[in-house]
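User: For my dataset I need records formatted as: sequence, then structure tokens, nothing else. Please produce one.
Assistant:
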Amino acid sequence: MSERKVLNKYFPPDFDPSLIPRRRQPKNSQQVVRLMAPFSMRCNTCGEYIYKGKKFNARKETVEGEDYYGIKIFRFYIKCTLCSAEITFKTDPKNTDYAAEHGASRNFEPWREEKAVEEEDRLAKLEEEENNPMKALENRTVDSKREMDILDALQDIRARNARNERIGQSVDLLERLHMEEIETEEDRERKLAEEEDEKLVREVFAKVPAPATSSSSGTGASSGATPEVITVKRKAGADEPDLQSLLPESARALLSVASTIGAPALKKKKVDGKNALGIKLKGKARAKT
């Protein structure tokens, strides 16, 4: 017998999933879900109390034409445990709760209780002010004091925000000034470097008028145009510095020591006359002699 709870099932080689008929359900079909009663309620048919947390097999559907800022609202159908009457309730995203809709009444609704208490307090306050003028004056004084406290707190918040904004602007201004100073210093250094380069170029090169040819001189004299100027490299004068004066002190000291010591004389290799002439003597001839 095969396993009942298996993860992998056998599919024959000729299995074609496209041949399986697909179920066509209506657009807003009801789904069977398992839930617990979200609040305590009383059945309107038999008066049976259904406590919060009782489990039901309910049917769920989406409410058509109702939503809360794009949030869908769902409706649930359950049956009374005593008379099997149908009870419906739906979600309430506005109050983050559930609302009883049909077949049962909720035992306690918190938001309704709060609204009722607020309304009772307001009516009691109006009635007391009508009967007691001093109480009305006291209430107006308390309200004006509360409004003044709110205005003072609002003014403090505005002053704090303005101070923070001024501090931020001052910090930004200081940073901007610092960046401008850095930029001006960099521009100044760049300008000095360019001026030094220009000075060095002027020292090395010179501009002289170009020699005028016969044809060009006649035309230039007649037209009155300025003579052409060419740039040539200057020749070194008689006061050219010595090579040793350009060397550092350590290099000069090494050169002076080398000149005093002098280079060792090379030994000349003795050359035999016979070898120089290319004459070779055999061993026997050397022995006879």
